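Hello,

Following up on my earlier ticket. Below are the two sequence lines again, exactly as submitted.
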Amino acid sequence: MSEKTDNREFLKRTTLQDLLNQKNVLTPLDNPQKRENSHIGGKNSFLEEKTSKLEEISLFIFKRGVNELKQEKYCCASALFETLLTFEPDHIKAKLNLAVALSQVGNNKKALAILESVLEQEPDNEVAIQNIKIIEESI
Amino acid sequence: MTRYIVFANRKGGCGKTTTAVNIACIFSIKNKKVLLVDLDPQAHATLSLRINPDPEKPNIYNLLDKKASFKEVIQQVITTPKINCHSITNKNDEKREKSRSKNLYIIPSSRNLSVVEMNAPRFSGDELYLAEILHNNASEFDYVIIDPPPSVGILSVSALVAAKEAYIPMPMHFLAMEGLAEMTRLIYQINATWNPELKLCGIIPTFYNKNTRITKEIASDIVNTFGTGRLAPPIRQNVALAEAPGHGCSIFEYAPDSIGAEDYETLAMFIENNVK
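Thanks for your patience. The regenerated structure is below:
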């Protein structure tokens, strides 16, 4: 019986979605169909969610971003912080972490622009000031 | 507005260069001003248009090495179809004459471009350089078409950073599908870190044979995963497409009545209208 099951598993075709899952590409890039479904489709519109739910999601994304950053997965981390900033464009910690992730992959120009936007919000933010110095010295 | 298009796939032999050259040619025939950027050290796009990839002449390497300016490296492509090639018949002559165009320009490649790949320190920030040059200088063109090498290195990443639309040519095989998943991951990463404007606009089935089961399965996978709009019109297997580069011309000059020419014309229409 178990042999039969194994054979069936062996014969099962690997799909494109399986391959994307293996590579942790959870949602294909810019898939309008899926976006429409998740944001507009259904009666419980995304925009009508309670604020507390949004905060919960933001915190979840932020923690995941920090986790990816700690594991030195800079591309994944920056994608998560970028996503968070679309929810909360003024999230300073997300901006600071995004700048770290971007500078780690060499995109210093964008990292500096983000840190400068932090200083526009909080002119005395020491982390931003210090990181700008570090990046400018490294260029 | 200039459209920046890359035909990318890290898998070799999937029809990237053939697609880039023929799409560049058909757009130029349609009176669009086109710049083809050959970023592959193999210089196959350059060779396909009968240009000698001479390292001594200004080429993409000199541009990336900051030893030549944008204007110094671009060359106008003068198409001169070979008269005695086997598929030329009288009825094709009129079409062939129409396919001569003065709107096609190329930044040729040369073998010394491989030095860029070998010497590039990883994560140096040089990935943005090509994008800066093209975005600052190529606004006079309607289309900038980039042909990257079949690898994931600084040249391919530079191409994806410079482009705004990515198309992935792929034969309908399982291993090519793995390549597609990998390219999707790479595009996702570059979109998140370097180029938020980059979009995966289409998957182009190449060497297409509609009668095989695997072709149907993979096409259905693509539609289920990315949506119907992402599956571009296929390019059927056609020997004239393989022969044309040897004669230094596009399929529209070499065999304008072939199914290859027909398929690339359909694909060009898809790309032209695929503006979101």
